[in-house]
Write a structure and sequence with these properties.
Blueprint lengths: L7 H18 L5 H5 L19 H6 L24 H4 L7 E3 L6 H11 L4 H18 L5 E4 L4 H7 L3 H13 L7 E3 L11 H7 L4 E3 L6 E5 L7 H12 L4 E5 L1
Parallel strand pairs: 1-6, 2-5, 5-6
Antiparallel strand pairs: 3-4
Helix pairs in contact: 5-6, 6-8
Length: about 250
């Protein structure tokens, strides 16, 4: 006799089923791997189950290399320079920006797969890469947050890519993740504006929902002119935070 009146046979079936589900969930090449063969998110080459981007594509992704701007991380033309033209001619609100690589070649394709095709596995791969990149920099971080969207913007997109990346990266780094900002008005997409328009488009578009001290890691998907990062960092520092590091 088994508990709850179940027969020995039904218990055996349940145990087999639960073990199979756990095997697939933990990444084993089980039934899911047979039904949905794993392939690289960039070149579609077959990969082992759980590998999102194949080794060949990872090796071909352009990385950030010196010399770079010490504030925004943009590539510089000469090693004698320490700031790019944009950072050298204005006061930045964020303290430093760290990026995986230039928005070019494979990075663009992978980011589009994550943002527009909602390939969450690519997002988790990005979080792994972002966590490793920040760990290599040795920055001291107290809390992780993200660039927010309005509710209508998030509904239109289906999710907030920055929030997804911030949560996954915080888990990788073993750091607390908090919602520190809200976006209080809808704004035109930055990509549709000129550099000058981007500077004013987001002015007073964010509000802090928590105050605090220490170093904040602000995660976003992309850094272009840095206008979004600047406005978010300005808002966070008004709320009392001492340092804002951008990770994209």
């Amino acid at each position: 006799m088994t508990m709850s009146g179940a027969t020995r046979t039904s218990f055996s079936v349940w145990r087999w089923f639960s073990r199979s589900v756990r095997w697939v969930r933990e990444g084993g090449a089980g039934v899911a791997a047979l039904l949905y063969p794993a392939e690289c998110a960039r070149c579609s080459a077959p990969t082992r189950w759980g590998i999102v981007v194949c080794g060949a594509c990872v090796d071909r992704l352009p990385r950030v290399e010196d010399p770079v701007c010490r504030q925004c991380g943009e590539a510089l033309a000469a090693p004698s320079l320490d700031l790019c033209l944009r950072c050298g001619t204005r006061v930045r609100s964020f303290d430093r920006a760290v990026s995986l690589g230039p928005y070019d070649d494979g990075w663009r394709e992978l980011l589009h797969a994550f943002k527009f095709a909602r390939e969450k596995a690519v997002g988790r791969w990005f979080a792994k890469e972002l966590g490793a990149r920040l760990a290599a920099e040795g920055e001291r971080i107290d809390v992780v947050t993200h660039v927010p969207m309005t509710r209508s913007e998030e509904r239109a997109r289906g999710f907030n890519p920055s929030r997804f990346l911030a949560r996954a990266t915080a888990r990788r780094l073993g750091l607390p993740e908090r919602r520190l900002l809200v976006k209080v008005r809808v704004t035109p997409p930055q990509r549709a504006l000129s550099a000058r328009e981007r500077e004013t488009n987001l002015r007073d578009a964010f509000r802090a929902v928590r105050s605090g001290r220490g170093a904040v890691l602000l995660v976003d998907d992309l850094l272009t002119t840095g206008a979004t990062a600047d406005e978010c960092a300005r808002t966070l520092k008004r709320a009392g935070f001492d340092t804002v590091i951008i990770l994209t």
